[in-house]
Design goal:
Blueprint: E1 2-6, E2 9-12, E3 16-22, E4 25-30, E5 33-38, E6 40-44, E7 47-52, H1 69-85, E8 89-92
Parallel strand pairs: 7-8
Antiparallel strand pairs: 1-2, 2-3, 3-4, 4-5, 6-7
Length: 93
C-alpha cells in the first residue's frame, strides 16, 4: 500500500520511498540508503511513462559495493509498483 508524501513522492508500507526530485531525477530510499535515479519521460501504450536504465540499482549512492542482483530486481519491482500507483508505466532500457 502506498501513501502520497507530497505531489512528487510516495511511500510504501514496505519501507521504501520514491521521490521525483527534478525533471530527470528521482530518488529511491530505504531507510537512510538512497539510490539517485536518472529518469526520462516516455509513453507506453498511450500512458505516461518513466524510463530508467537496467543498471539503475547497481549501487547505493553512499556505497561502492555492488547491490546483490536479487535485491536490485526487488528494488526495480518496487519502483514499478510506485510508478504505477502514480499513474505511470515503467520502461527499463
Amino acid at each position: 500500500m502506498f501513501i502520497w508524501i507530497n505531489k512528487q513522492g510516495v511511500q510504501s508500507d514496505r519501507g521504501f520511498v520514491v521521490q521525483f526530485t527534478g525533471r530527470f531525477a528521482a530518488e529511491y530510499r530505504e531507510g537512510v540508503s538512497v539510490v539517485t535515479l536518472a529518469v526520462e519521460d516516455g509513453v507506453s501504450g498511450g500512458l505516461p511513462a518513466i524510463i530508467v536504465s537496467s543498471e539503475a540499482f547497481r549501487r547505493w549512492d553512499n556505497d561502492r559495493a555492488v547491490i546483490d542482483p536479487d535485491k536490485q530486481e526487488r528494488m526495480l519491482c518496487n519502483l514499478r509498483e510506485a510508478a504505477e500507483f502514480q499513474g505511470l508505466k515503467l520502461l527499463v532500457e
